[in-house]
Amino acid sequence: MHMARKNIRKSDRQLSPSQAANQQTVGMILAISLDEYGEIPSRLVMLFSDVAGLYDGRWSSHEACAVTYHNFSHALDVCLASARMLSGWNRTESAQTLDENHFLLGMAASLFHDAGYIKNKGDHAGSGGKFTLVHVERSMEIAWEYLTRKQWSSEEVETVCRMISITDYTKLSDLASLFTDVRIKAMAQMVATADLVAQMADTDYVQRIDDLFAEFKEVYEFENCEALAKKGTKVYKTVQEIKDGTIDFYEHFVVPTLTKLGRMDRYLTNFFGDGRNPYQENIAANLSGHLMDVRSQWRRLGDILTDLGLASNEQITKALAKQQTLTEKKTDPSKSFNALLREQLLPWFAARSQEGRCLGDILMEMQAVEPKSLAKGLLAQMLPDSLYEKLSPRELHFLLQAAILLQNICKGPWILGVVLEMANEILDCEASSILIADLDEKEMLVALPTGPKKNLVYGKGIAMDKGLSGWVYRNGQPARVSNVSDDARFDRGMDKNIDFVTRSILAVPLHVNGECIGAVEALNKSDDNFTQHDMNVLAILANMLANVMVGVLCLQSNH
Fold this sequence. Notes:
The structure is a single chain. This protein has 28 helices and six strands. The protein has helices spanning 2-14, 17-37, 42-56, 72-92, 100-112, 135-149, 154-165, 175-178, 182-201, 205-222, 225-230, 239-244, 246-260, 266-272, 278-291, 294-297, 301-307, 313-330, 337-348, 359-365, 371-382, 385-388, 393-406, 414-427, 454-457, 468-475, 493-498, 532-558; strands spanning 429-438, 443-449, 461-463, 479-481, 505-512, 515-525. By secondary structure, the chain is α+β, with helices and mostly antiparallel strands. It is elongated, with a radius of gyration of 28 Å. The protein folds into two domains: 17-291, 3'5'-cyclic nucleotide phosphodiesterase, catalytic domain (Catalytic domain of cyclic nucleotide phosphodiesterase 4b2b, Orthogonal Bundle); 315-558, Beta-Lactamase (2-Layer Sandwich). It is 60% helix and 8% strand. A six-stranded antiparallel beta sheet has the order 3-2-1-6-5-4, with helices on both faces.
């Protein structure tokens, strides 16, 4: 026994990181089987071993898997997500419990669903990306041959193949005809859901898009791109084009597809308990942390909370309605939000504030979210993990100092001025300012300036349709310009009036409760080269400032 243990440890040491990770994933799946059914079926163990051999090239009929995106690790990730959904389902749908055979069928479909990328033995052309458009059919053929050879019943073989077929998401309209048994249909929906959720929640998702593009490039080489386009197949020219389209892909394809599949991913929350869904948390981090586009970087807290599964759309709607009711009790309901800004927020820059209640407070009062869930949503909104890892110790120290100072905002708006001065040092720039949109006057008002000319620009207006800050406000997007002379959006009117020379600008939108109300600007970096990282830092600060302003509006409304 002692020698056997030594040999196991030696074998473990020889595993590659990916093999060790795969082994760990298989262990978690088998543990779910044991928890659900009190045993680990021998057919399940054999299934994992044999399909691992297929991907490793140990089958006489196929080469080793050569694609790096749709690989064995992805197949196992889909298995694990499917198994977790099944477990969550069984905890809540007691009248239609999925049994051991449903579990086995789902695992087989998950394991084989992307096997179609693997080349036949002797095929040395490409890596397998050439099969992108036909991989589902090839996956079904491989599964059919293997399961038949292993003497699975014809009904089981057909069921697994039908499950694989709907990972071609154009087949979703045929679900009713494909699956007459409610429980088989549910398991199939879980497999197809897991295929989307597992890849979107991968912590290396954005980096792995490079691997996905390599597969696309290969199919473009083997097929006629013009013919593909005519068939409606999207042809990507660069990997960046895929990355830039990730938000749209998630919003306009993934979410609608998950809805068609019955939002089976909600059962992941049942599996993990405590209101958590780590898959959705990772997806939110991938979208908001890396891409940092307007809809992920400055989304409303309500959007973040619903995406994380921490609050429902209905709860958010009720909370916002209650927040509006509370506000209207203290203000003239005929006045626009911009009028409230002008009358309450702008004067606040010279006034003190008192305590009040905002969206988060109302949600907690409604028991829609727990305080720790609200905190999780706020952190996902303001400081995603992927961005946090890129911040230097000096930048982290700055954000900590800013957070501490902003806790004392009741002392007055001069706190914001101090924080902006600190930002100037971090960004190595000459000046900065907070600008608030005045829709009545069609101007961006300089509400809080810093820098050598701050006394001259305070309260001044910049035409909304001319300046860069107006462009940022109107489009809700950040902007960075190294040489303003080369950018048509920049207007020199303010410079001429105050005898100042603007060389470079970094500006990010300022959102309050999801509505863009202005911009935060930084001017004249020492080398005039504001970076994407600088933009991320300023965006974090803008989020912090926005949350302070939400509080200010609530306080002023209740005053």
